[in-house]
Specification:
By secondary structure, this protein is an alpha+beta fold. 43% of the residues lie in helices and 26% in strands. The chain has three domains: 184 residues, no CATH class; 66 residues; 109 residues, no CATH class. It has ten helices and 13 strands. The strands form two sheets. Strands 1, 2, 3, 4, 5, 6, 7, 8, 9, 10 and 11 form an eleven-stranded mixed sheet that branches. A two-stranded antiparallel ribbon has the order 12-13. About 11% of the residues have low confidence.
């Protein structure tokens, strides 16, 4: 089974080139038995044997490989090199003091500053075949062996990190294990409710990954709430605009309707002027007020209060028709309304019905 792995060491010696780049020489791996975390959280012991990491294939694989800022979540290839590479290893990979060394140059300004600020842990990302095989190396037992090791990239990582997420599987730190055997090992800490707890590096990585996912989910939820609020506000604004448009349409006359209203007003004034006289001021008067004034010229005691518009219109038509046929006089034989009061009411009712019939025909 071929898996991706990560080993770690530390930058101790580095120098700046005239161009401002940072050149580093570091041991990147060594033989030994190391614990590796499975996807289910359990740990298996795997061996790196000298004949595997010191063979020509593995040594060549350390040459001219990209330097990255933390581990990407995928192998670095020509397709994603521009996204991940912050430098390159040299071609001087070699074996010294039972370790695999290589020098590398960091060309990214931000990553160089991080190294100056204390980010000095090296972690190689590599592929290997993990073979079930029991044995002992330097007094330590193992259940699996790493074969056909090929280095993919060299990452600069923060101290105490155990590599990428558990799904990719991360190596423990060979140099920390060595320190542990010397009594100098300290476990990484994880803060919970303001208090630091010592935890295994793999557990810390898992907790940090879960915290990052939670933060991303909370950010997404907040964004969704903001978008929903904007949607609701726009929907309310649209409803108000539609109501305003509807009200405006209902209160607006069409050109034909306006022409008709003007013609009716002119006709009313023209008909009423002979009865009301030139001194009558039509300004600001409603059609009904003008008609009531005309009726009052022939029937002084007339009161329009409580009468419907249809009644006023019929009475007005009757007044005008009477005056036009018999001549105008407020008293005497030429009074517009003389004789039987019931006859007058009947005449008004007939005129009212006549107006209603005309209006119904217009509406049809």
């Amino acid at each position: 089974m071929r898996l991706q792995r990560y080993d770690k060491s530390y930058i101790k010696d580095y120098g700046e080139t005239p161009e401002g780049y940072l050149t580093v020489q570091v041991p990147i791996t060594r033989p030994g038995v190391f614990p590796y975390q499975r996807q289910d959280g359990t740990v298996q012991m795997e061996v790196k044997l000298p004949d595997e990491i010191f063979n020509d294939r593995t040594i060549r694989s350390a040459r001219s490989k990209p330097v990255t800022d933390e581990h990407p979540n995928e192998p670095v290839t020509i397709e994603n090199y521009q996204s991940y590479a912050k430098g390159m290893s040299h071609t001087d990979a070699r074996v010294e003091d039972l370790k695999l060394y290589v020098s590398l140059t960091i060309t990214d300004k931000d990553l160089i500053q991080k190294v100056y600020d204390g980010k000095r842990e090296i972690s190689i990302g590599f592929l290997s075949d993990v073979v079930a095989e029991q044995g002992t190396y330097n007094g330590q037992t193992y259940d699996y062996a790493q074969r056909n090791i090929e280095i993919n990239h060299i990452a600069i990582v923060d101290q105490g990190r155990a590599g990428p997420e558990v799904a990719i599987r991360s190596d423990s730190d060979a140099w920390q294990i060595e320190d542990k055997n010397k009594g100098g090992h300290t476990m990484p800490t994880y803060k919970i409710d303001g208090k630091d707890y010592e935890v295994d590096s793999a557990v810390k990585s898992f907790l940090e990954a879960q915290a990052a996912k939670l933060e991303a989910a909370q950010t997404k939820a907040a964004s969704l709430d903001a978008l929903q609020g904007r949607h609701d506000a726009l929907e309310t604004k649209l409803e108000n605009t539609e109501k305003e448009l509807k009200t405006a349409k209902e209160s607006q006359f069409s050109a034909d309707e306006l022409d008709k209203k003007v013609e009716e007003r002119v006709a009313l004034i023209s008909t009423s002027t002979p009865l009301l006289g030139d001194s009558f001021d039509f300004t600001g008067k409603t059609d009904r007020e003008i008609k009531e004034a005309v009726i009052a010229t022939t029937k002084e005691e007339f009161k329009g209060d409580g009468k419907s518009d249809d009644y006023i219109n019929a009475f007005f038509d009757a007044t005008v028709e009477q005056v036009q046929s018999t001549g105008f006089s407020s008293t005497g034989v030429n009074n517009a309304f003389t004789g039987d009061a019931k006859a007058n009411e009947k005449e008004i009712e007939e005129m009212k019905n006549k107006r209603l019939n005309m209006r119904n025909k217009e509406e049809k």
